[in-house]
Design goal:
Pfam family, one: CoA_transf_3
Number of strands: 2
InterPro entries: CoA-Trfase_fam_III (IPR003673), CoA-Trfase_III_dom_1_sf (IPR023606)
Keywords: Transferase
Largest sheet: 2 strands, antiparallel
Low-confidence stretches: 88-92
Strand content: 5-15%
GO molecular function, one term: transferase activity
Shape: extended
Organism: Phenylobacterium glaciei
């Protein structure tokens, strides 16, 4: 549905009707921004094959139980099952 109008037109229409909205842009400019770095919204973890992996941190900090990103998921050695294969979604 959103492809039927340009982004600017949707924003104007939604905002005129009191819908809180904002454009979504590419990840890179947001991720490289000063606000993200200052707010500790970015974390870098080391991957054994890929090297440093930059990713968003936990967005909220609770005083008693603060969350954090401590490790990356381990690489899977399992063979993907039928649901992970694109052909599994085709009708036969």
């Amino acid at each position: 549905m959103f492809k039927t109008r340009p982004r600017a037109e949707w924003l104007e229409l939604l905002q005129a009707n009191g819908v809180p909205c904002a454009p979504v842009g590419p990840r890179e400019p947001w991720f490289a921004g000063d606000a993200v770095a200052a707010g500790e919204a970015r974390v870098t973890l080391e991957h054994p094959e890929l090297g440093p992996v930059h990713m968003p941190n936990v967005p909220s900090r609770l005083s008693v139980t603060p969350g954090s990103v401590r490790h990356l998921a381990k690489p899977s050695t399992a063979t993907p099952g039928p649901s992970a294969r694109p052909s599994a979604h085709r009708r036969q």
